Hints:
Layout: H1 3-17, E1 25-28, H2 30-38, E2 48-52, H3 60-67, E3 70-74, H4 81-99, E4 104-107, H5 115-123, E5 127-132, H6 139-144, E6 146-149, E7 158-161, E8 170-175, H7 184-191, E9 198-204, E10 207-212, H8 215-227, E11 233-236, H9 239-248
Parallel strand pairs: 2-3, 4-5, 5-6, 7-9
Antiparallel strand pairs: 1-7, 8-10, 8-11, 9-10
Helix pairs in contact: 2-3
Amino acid sequence: MQENVEKESKVSETDIYGVKIDQLEFCIDHGKLLATIQGNRKLGDGPVIVGPRPLPNDSLWRSALEQRYNVTVYDRNIENYKKKADVELAHTINKVIFTKSPGILALVSGDSEYDPIVTSALKCNWIVESWFWNMGMSGVLKDKTIFTPLDYHYKSFSCGFGPDFGKDNRVLEVIGHALRNWGNREMINIFAPLNVFSWWNRINDETLHLYFNQKMQLQLVESWIKNSPHELQFKEKSFLVRKALHTLGFLR
Length: 252
């Protein structure tokens, strides 16, 4: 996993969801990103993950343990940590393509610096996939690899966190004791199967606000809450009142 997956997502996400980036924090769960890329495919011998250290609650750690990944991570406060991760990843890929039987190499990056490695892998009869955001993807890598834009899959591994200061989104307020332990991972687990992007904000320990740009999306989540095993209360915040407050200048 590479740092620029997150950095470039902050650019392309404005096109994906139609909100200004300064309104929310765009969060990626790397374990869910890994699951999205892997799909139903079986892993090869000695799978490897190299990159900056994910957050402690990222589901990547559980995936790595369950599937026996060889994980090399670098703390973000170490000088040149991204460069060190790039060098380690390049070394690992070279070792794999020259010592293992050809298979599929999935590269989560859009950086043209990986072109020499990709070229070597192709010469050794490897199939090379690249997964990245459309905006920021190297044209060279796109032409040489089987490219899958993350833009098509972002709901399965990402969410937005922070308040909505706009006037057009609908707000669902959810209250319940079970919410105390909910975070980004839990929100993605709920929203992704509904094909809805998770944008949420914590008001207090037992109250969340969920934001939607379509009424149908809100109704899907309402239905999920009604059928969930958790004792949750919910209500839609007045859409017309929010628009009026924005018009009067109380919401920016």
